[in-house]
Amino acid sequence: MHRYIIKRLLFLIPTVLGVTLIIFIVMSITPGNPGRMILGPNANAAEVEAMNEELGYNDPVVVRWFNYLKDIVTKGSFGQSYSTKLDVFDELWPRFLVTLRLAILVLILSISIGVPLGILSAVKQNSLMDTIPTMIAFFLAAVPSFVVGILLMYIFALKLNWFPSFGLKSAKHYVLPVIAATICELSAYLRFTKSSMLEAIRQDYVRTARAKGVAERTVIWKHALKNALLPVVTSIGMRFGCLLAGMVTTEQLFSIPGVGSLIVESISTKDEPMIIGCAVMVSICFTLLMIGVDVIYAFIDPRIRAKYSKGG
To answer: For residue range 273-284, what is the model confidence (pLDDT) as tens digits?
Structure first.
């Protein structure tokens, strides 16, 4: 098992190389330049050109990419932001922690509601306990997250004045953004868990257990659920990675200083070091999450655990 984890960790190296190179290429072919973005529309061409030269923006893409990687290896630095002149990591890390806290709350709440409802819908298929949650899930999946957020702000912030509508200064500030993001997430968990559970219930080993007279509770929780959880765990890992990439709509709507809003701001100013730093952080987190999913697989399924044990 440990050898597999080491191999996956080494996979971070080509991942970071590929992500940084792609971003450098994309940013080089998009219109605009950081000099114009920083100095504004009133700066003359000579000033803009001097600023681009100072930032190294006029160098070929490959040269800028190589210099960026060299600074990471030799200095441990992701560069300085074009806009703020601050170290990228120093500016990115506090905002990443904000997004991480928000994402964990959304994940816990959406799993706690969505997964049990999905199991219930599968077990009670074609009953009201299946129809009602499924209809609600499809309705919520069709509603954009910004619409949910605006509706919550209008009712609970503007009309009732129960919760604040922007920032994250206290626990009350988390309520509306977490609920807005959770409503969209739990519908996906409900639908995915239901389909996975239905597939597991229809397997031969479940029918065999029922034929032997095993109690229905044991059949569901001991036999069907373990196998149904494998694709659900994968979905949880991937969706959590997407949350860490930044809940752009939620962060922009509620004025939350997270990774998503930082990426939007950096793209608008063509702040390459900050964009690349955000992308590298997200890619590393996503890879680590997938490693964690594989480890959880081994605990859920003895067959996978035996395979890892044989491979070292």
So the answer is: 888 888 888 888
